[in-house]
Amino acid sequence: MSINQIDMLLESMANYLNHKLKIKKRDDVLIVGIHTGGVWVAERLHALLKLQQPLGQLNIAFYRDDFSRIGLHPHVKPSTLPFEVENRHLILVDDVLHTGRTIRAALNEIFDYGRPASVTLAVLVERNGRELPIQPDVIGYSLCLEPGKHIKLNGPDPLFLEIRTLHE
């Protein structure tokens, strides 16, 4: 997918979010991106939506359910939520929604900071293979990949998507 196509997806997502926020009369939302690709997408959406509040960043390494199996990455950075989440409306952003486990881990971490009033999930790419009942509210692009294929967002500048074959 080309850089221009990703920019168009991001603009479409921002327009949809803007419309959704106006309907729900939410003008003071907070955006939280999931490290790494979700932060890149969140930065773009944050700018397109012209939000005043700072951007939050989650690193869910300690919240993953496969932590004991894969271990800790040596360069884990802490999460940064420069605002209170209690009773606030959040937009949680990730690059690719696949199994749903990353989103589950992100929600667990957010709730450790407080109980938000709502969480809207925005993803650049939604693909098949869900293992948990997690559904995005805003989707840039939906695709179905055959087994053994994986989609990855590369960036941060420029952002581009590539489909890879997994080698097991």
UniProtKB/TrEMBL annotation:
Keywords: Glycosyltransferase, Transferase. The keyword Glycosyltransferase applies. GO terms for molecular function: glycosyltransferase activity. SUPFAM superfamilies: PRTase-like. Residues 20-140 form the Phosphoribosyltransferase domain. Pfam families: Pribosyltran. InterPro entries: PRTase-like, PRTase_dom, PyrR_bifunctional. NCBIfam families: PRK05205.1-1. This is Bifunctional pyrimidine regulatory protein PyrR uracil phosphoribosyltransferase. It comes from Candidatus Thiomargarita nelsonii.
